Amino acid sequence: MGLTLVAMTNDPNPVEPDVADHQEIQQSLKRLDRITSWFKWNTTLTILLLVAALAVLVVPEVLGSNGLPQQLDISLIVGVLIVIMMIGNGYTLFHQRHFKVFRTRLAEQMQVAIKQRIRADKFYGMAILDPLTGLYNRRFGEECLQREIARAERTSGDLAVIVMDLDYFKEINDEYGHAAGDLVLREFSRHLRRAVRACDVPVRIGGDEFLVVLPECPRENVHIILSRLKPFDVMLDRKKVTISYSRGRAHYQVTDTPQSIIQRADKVLYDEKAARPAVPGRAAEVSTPSA
């Protein structure tokens, strides 16, 4: 299979995330918090003033006349309370207008932020996925393998890799064309995704070469995954073609590097190929579909 993994390098000029929209949203939220707080205190003040006005009307004897008619004292106090409530509610109406503006602006900012997030997720997916098969691409696989080796070194956890390539894929391309080869790759990738665990990382290295990174995977579990990867049939040019593939696996050892663990898995794969009996021509079984 001959995989060569390159070392990860840190970008000396990483792209800074655009935080302007986030800061603007945060400022709008703070303004809305202040307006909401004002609504709360204004409502509380209005209730207290209404209670005071009712107290003045219901219990007039608590007021001292100070030489003025009692009715004048009551009317003056109630009038002052009403004026205060009118001023407070007028200011509340003023804030409500701003509240509507801020709410509309915040909704627009959130829509922009959501669209940017969707666009960023799309670009990220394009950066890490192989467009033909939907599996992870080589670069992401290399980075993932390095991370998992570092984790295995820290935790002494289980780590395994599987390398695979399709048997006689060149002959399939030559006989049926590249469109048929793409169909075979997509179908194999579908089988591969169904065979591995949710935490595993299936990678298309290139051509018909594949890698699976298996974090926290004991040896017996690797055997289970391999048992799910069986030959399958596809229809090519109205013929049923059986697609088989070769596999190699390796388990993490102390001082392993991405290159060394892949090389051991490659050796198992090549040994498996060498142990097969020689078959003249293309080894994929071809038969016409039954009527």
Account of the 3D structure:
With 291 residues, the chain is α+β, with helices and mostly antiparallel strands. The protein folds into 2 domains: 20-128; 138-287, Reverse transcriptase/Diguanylate cyclase domain (Alpha-Beta Plaits, 2-Layer Sandwich), CATH 3.30.70. The protein is built from 7 helices and 7 strands. Strand 4 (232-236) and strand 5 form a beta hairpin. The protein is elongated, with a radius of gyration of 36 Å.
- Distance separating the two termini: 39 Å
- Let me know the largest β-sheet: 4 strands, antiparallel
Order of helix and strand elements from N to C terminus: HHHEHHEEHEEEHE
**In one word, what is the shape?**
elongated
Give the number of domains: 2
The fraction of residues in strands falls at 5-15%
| Cα-based radius of gyration, to the nearest Å | 36 Å
For the largest sheet, list the strands in their spatial order. Answer: 2-3-1-6
Structural class: alpha+beta
The CATH topology assignment of the largest domain is: Alpha-Beta Plaits
Which quaternary structure do these chains form? single chain
**Mean pLDDT value:** 77
